[in-house]
Amino acid sequence: GGTQKLSELRIVLMGYKGAGKSSVGNIILNREEFDLKRTAQCVKRQREVADRHITVIEAPGWSHTIPVCDIPELLKQEILLSLSLCPPGPHVVLLVIRVDTFLDGVKRHVLHGYVQLLGERVWSHTIVLFTHGDFLGDTSIEQHIESEGEDLRWLVEKCGNRYQVLNNKNKSDDTQIKHLLEKIEETVTQNNSRVLTINEKIFQRLEEIKRADKRAKERMKRMKKQREVTRSQMSDTQKLSELRIVLMGCKYSGKSSVGNIILNREEFDLKTTAQCVKRQREVADRHITVIEAPGWLWNGPVKKSPELLKQEILLSVSLCPPGPHVVLLVIPGDSIFKDIERKVLQGYVDLLGERVWSHTIVLFTFGDFLGDTSIEQHIEREGEDLQWLVEKCGNRYHVLNNNNSSDDTQIKDLLEKIEETVMKKNGCHFEIDRKILQRVEEIKRADERAEERMKRMKKQREMIRSMTSDTQKLSELRIVLMGYKYSGKSSVGNIILNRKETENREEFDLKRTAQCVKRQREVADRHITVIEAPGWWMNEPVKKSPELLKQEILLSVSLCPPGPHVVLLVIRVDIRFKETERKVFQGYVDLLGERVWSHTIVLFNRGDFLGDTSIEQHIEREGEDLQWLVEKCGNRYQVLNNEKRSDDTQIKDLLEKIEETVTQNNSCCFKMDRKAEQERMKKHIKKIVRSHMLSEDEMSNTVSLGSSAYGSFRSGSDADNSSIFASSCSKDRPISFGGDSHHLSELRIVLMGYKGAGKSSVGNIILNREEFDLKRTAQCDSHHLSELRIVLMGSRGAGKSSSGNIILNREEFDLKRTAQCVKRQREVADRHITVIEAPGWWINEPVDQSSELLKQEILLSVSLCPPGPHVVLLVIRADIRFKEFYRKVFQGYVDLLSERVWSHTIVLFTFGDFLGDTSIEQHIEREGEDLQWLVEKCGNRYQVLNNKNKSDDTQIKDLLEKIEETVTQNNHFNTETFLHDMKQRRKAKKETPKGHKVNKQKRRMQQSIEHDNLRMMSDLHRSVSSMSSGYGSSSSIPGSVENLGPSIKMNVSSCSEHSEQVELKD
Q1: Which DSSP string do the residues of 259-320 spell out, in sequence order?
Q2: Residue ranges per domain, the chain?
Q3: 429 CA to centre of own chain
Q4: What CATH number is given for 8-198 in this structure?
Q5: What's the pTM?
Q6: For 694-734, how does the pLDDT look when each residue is reduced to its tens digit (9 = 90+)?
């Protein structure tokens, strides 16, 4: 039948902040029922409209870019509550989106997470409601959907192609509401008049919310009683005339704002600082002193922070003698607070000793986020980590509404709470224990030593300048930059060469490179050459680094003949420098020989982090390892402030420091130790020709050739992976390199090696000039495989199907999820490409909690492309935070295929458009050690796909080349061993003790496993059969059924019959 007009409609509005949900509610109800201010609670309004009783629930909005896993529980729970506020459930969910806001991969992923809170069934009850329709003009909504790209189209299709537009400027137009109500009624009809009911999982969570709210009321009563008892013991005369307060918290928690609210004027600058800031004022008849300690990164543990930060936190309590009355621990009320936040915060507070907790109050900022929700409800709902913190502070907590800073009552309540805390401690303030006093005294001594260091430095420079005349100013400077990855070498190079961020290009690309980069420019009447050597991982010693890196560092000093005037050792001032970092640095610098230290200056980057702290204070406070490095470099150091790139004085000072260093070295540049250089070359060439039967005498003579050409040496290769083969060199006819009378008049040499091994560079070294172009050539060098077999693995929603479609250059894979492997083939770029998509796992579900079906399908994936895949692409979204838990989940699923699979695996980042101008290397580094571990586990093989630029053939070309390089480095994955492992697992299951009871669920699971095993064998048999014509017979096919062993062969003959029977039964 037709659409039935309903007498009652129940509607839930969902969407991000600023999407216009409140306005939509007002338009639907035809009057101003919803306040346009944001709220953290659901809001319910009802009214009679067009002969219908309409109930509208507005769920709180979310931020565009913050995924559901990173928001406080309060917000998630309020979204869940929206369903229960209109029993028996809403007829429809309106997903509100501004038509003038672009929905990219990040926003789509975020939105999906929030809607998914209500369960998978919610999508069949959802309509996409576009607001601000006036923005479209004459463009139809259909044209807009098509032009916006696949993310918006995905969303509309996910909602069953149900969508509507509202023109906010034409609110009085009743026809648009009439059309919307009709669309809602059509949706109800499509769902057979069924409403969206609460499933069991959501019901349980709602029950937990009720229990949490009940506990919140009890907490409120306890808090009230506790305060009444304290007040009864206080007299009016006990009101303190002075209050000393320390503010602690992570960066951007709102400490400066809190200080300004307490002192009732703008005393604290809202910019972040690395020093304590002290301010005082008379407020409410009290002399109040507020110390703001510098903040820490919310996820940066204390052990990884620089000494400067830790010491400033220690100093904070000594800046208001005899000690603070209270420490206010500032926590944003609108942020998540889980295990990682709790551990990090605990680490920093514990710097002040265990006793500080009894003087601490938790101060929640951004209380306006809570709306009508009490702080007790927030504490109970957020979970045990926040509850632990509050209880650790003796259940002392307070909330500040930053949007209502003029409200004197909230400050009055806070000051009273502080006085109550002091009274409970018998009027005592926090006393600094002896251990902290000793550390504070050490800081003071370090600052005294810093002053002495500054004086010595000044005297040293004056003496050098007295030896230098104006005519000795160098017309040319040659500089080498060294340092770990992301120390800021490229930025330093750009600052030195005076390339501004506003110019069309910078000399040094900020993306990470594995090769030296050379740039030159005229700056301040000098011809400056800057060589940037590739960086090393901060915690990776030289002995564990690839040969390529070491050779490039050696090469760096030869790229500016006759040698560099100075080596700048670049170090970030905002990262700790301890023994590990010192040993790593020393190892890499020592590659250049002991003499390099006399030509080295320590260049501290990110100097803005120091604030008013001098670099000498930082050196002395950081400890003996940094001091050792500075002294090893002859006490030559300089600081660059990255926020003041346009400040020419800092570059002028650096260039003067460099010229002073040259003067100290008698105007000599740095040259490699010839003897050490020859020894290194001997070892290097020995590796290259080890497999070609040269004797030791011949080797020593060969070194003279190599070392003479070292000035232009550019190996860039791992010697073990490249070979130089002379056709006249053999066992039967050894070659003598000894004297002029014995050398060959002609040598014919073939260079072989994988892409990037450095063949062109080796050719240039042999010929002693640039004959070979360092770019890859399409002739000979780039012969590609005629066939590629690829397996895609990853979590659900990672973009495996899209990646498969991009690789095969057409829509082969359905974007809907499947529980089985999907195999597709096509000719692409003169290659026959087979792509297997393994089913995805939930990103937060470990392998031991997943179904056997999923695990069996992942195991099956590698057998669907016999004799095995060339590569496994591990698909990860670039727009998702990759945490330790996710890393463990990923590792578990990949390990199903055995440890060896990692050497055949490439990490494929999807949604690369999310990165914008950020390089994938920057993303990997910023994301943290878990993503870095994964990339390194895969041999540092990774690639990025931009899902919005599918027509870009270059990204697929690059990916296919990366795959072929991986194949070159490996033999093909061997399915036989893998199948043997499966056989052993089945055998182990059969040997399980009989005493175990098996319930119905386990029996069904076992049947599913047997079905899958049969299907796997059937598919493998069919795959092998289809290949037999190409190989002549199955016996000649690598990994064929004939070679799988008797235990597997015995099942194959009847495999097809069995699988058909099973399919019929299913």
Answers
A1: HHHHHTS--S-SS--SS-EEEEEEETTEEEEEEEPPPB-TT--GGGS-HHHHHHHHHHTTSS
A2: 8-198, 233-432, 449-664, 674-767, 787-974, 1000-1065
A3: 42
A4: 3.40.50.300
A5: 0.52
A6: 444 544 444 443 333 333 333 333 333 333 223 333 333 33
